[in-house]
Amino acid sequence: MMERKFYRWMLVPALLFLTAFIYYPVLRGTVMAFQNYNLFDLNQLKFNGFDNFKAVMSDPHIRFAQILLNTAVWLFGSLFFQFVLGFGLALLLKKPFAGRGIYTAFVFYGWALSGFAIGLTWAWLFNGQFGLVNDMLMRIGLLSQPIGFLSNPNLAMISVIIPNIWYGVPFFGIMLLAALQSVPNELYEAATLDGAGAIRKFTSVTVPYVKPTIVSTILLRTMWIVNFPDIIYAMTNGGPVNRTNILATQMINKVFKEYDYGQGSAIGLIIMILLFAYAMLYLRLTEKGGDNL
Amino acid sequence: MKKQTVFSIGRFVLLAFYVLAAVFPLYWIVVTSLKGPKEIYTMPLQYLPTSATLDSYRKLFSFSSFSLYFRNSLVVALISSLLAMAVSILSGFSLSRYPRQRTKGILQLALYFTQTIPTFLIMVPIFTMFSKLGWVDSTAALMLVYVATVIAFSTIMSKGFFDRIPVSLEEAAKIDGCSMFQSLFHVVLPITRPGMAAIFCFAFINIWNELFLAVMLLMSNDKMTVPVALNSFISKAGISWDVMSAGIVIALLPTMIVFGFGQKYIVAGLTEGSVKG
Q1: How far away is chain B from the Cα of A173, in angstroms, using its nearest Cα?
Q2: Which residues of B27-65 are buried (b: 16+ CB within 10 A; e: fewer)?
Q3: A120/B266 CB distance under 8 A
Q4: Least CB-packed of A263, B15, B111, B168 within 10 Å?
């Protein structure tokens, strides 16, 4: 009895922090999404039903469909390459080699860096006049004069996705390497006895064994990428002509530029609902896939 | 035998490609910060600086209060990470040993739920709440928010580390007359030191890098953190890349150092937190 009381008390500080600064604000934000909460117009504060959502979805300057499409391209473009390159890196690192410890520090350190500072760094690399990428392409003769990667509507999205891939590969590498190292060696030995080749071992031993990690890492990363505007904010802030404007950057603009907290919160709520629906669908699909294996 | 050689050469080439791709952007920003503005804005670019100079850093520290911003960031990140570590030692231990499975399950779900919440949805309500309390532009209040943003994941990590310590150790300590508190601090904690290091590093990295909450909640110039300062360098007229690159290097260094020292623990902590439910 004493013990249970003790365990309960130990949870209090953490729960206080979460309630005050996470759970309560989420509820408050949900309410705000249904109010005309504008910093310049606080005297007129009232509930306005779905007006914020309607306003966000029928903005004459920024088509909502375009923002959704941008968000999808940003998400899947980043996620696919982060996963493939991260998995590749983990496979390369699985077998020990001299200096592996130091090597991993150099390929994984990107995980710890500031997304905003990384965005600025890549903005400089892609600079339209004095950027390194332009310089390299001109040296090898692919370009005759510098191009504006971040100001060209057709190149801007690729130019913000590349840094995001660069930034996300270490996380997949770390998680998948740990999973690969936990595959028991006996499984490979048994597969060898059964006459399985390298490819067969990969598809029938490695992949099924690390599948739970793949599933959970992709889900975590999806939520993270959708909620991560730092790189875009640093490089293009949604431009040119909204070509890189995703839900998260649009929300920042609503809050920081227009001070329209009601519409900003509405976008936040849309993000959360979409992610929730995505997670449900994703978990159901991957569970089914698991039965087939 | 031959096939083996081809494989190892291929592996070497790929490994070289990965490390080059990983290091090059950082190399470039460091090189830029060591060139003068004249060399930065001359094409074709010099891949090695012809004459390295610290002028950009001198400019950065004399034209802005960058040393103050650096100190602010350091104070905020250190204090809130230590606080987060202390809180999550308690909550993680409790969750790991909690006797009732149902409550434990609900609590864990509540922790995982926080991972799906966009910062932006809580940012505005926190701001309006702080305006009412008079907490806007307070470094201490910002630190409380930072603790809250990392505490869920820290707790999940810390629970994972405590799960690995056999309960029999505490039971033995209890027989020896230790109270619960004593057995946690004298018996369990000393063995989980690497885990605690992981929690601290994870919190420090996340808090050091945070931009938007700080932009929203801090007002005065002398309270700005490093990311907020970098953000303020972006002007309508464009960025002066000599000073900016120096600022970026200084913004990146601390978390790189923390990652360098704590890599082993961080990797263990990350995988502990997310792979195991």
Answers
A1: 10
A2: ebbbbbbbbeeebbeeeebeeebeeeeebbbebbbeebe
A3: no
A4: B168
What's the first-to-final CA gap in chain A, in angstroms? Answer: 46
Per-domain residue ranges for chain B? 1-53, 55-274
Long-range contacts of the stretch A12-19 (C-beta < 8 A, 24+): A13/B87, A13/B90, A13/B91, A14/B87, A14/B88, A14/B90, A14/B91, A14/B151, A14/B155, A15/B91, A17/B87, A17/B144, A17/B147, A17/B148, A17/B151, A18/B110, A18/B114, A18/B148, A18/B151, A18/B152
Per-residue pLDDT of B150-204, as tens digits, reads: 999 999 889 988 988 888 888 888 888 888 888 888 888 888 888 899 999 999 9
User: What's the pLDDT tens digit per position in B136-149?
Assistant: 999 999 999 999 99
Q: Which CATH superfamily is domain B55-274 in?
A: MetI-like (1.10.3720.10)
Q: How confident is the model at residue A291 (pLDDT cuts 50, 70, 90)?
A: very low
| Full set of structural domains in chain A with CATH | 63-245 (1.10.3720.10)
- Which one of B31, B80, B117, B179 would you mutate to disrupt binding with A, by most A Cβ within 10 Å of its Cβ? B117
Work out the average pLDDT over B36-52. 82
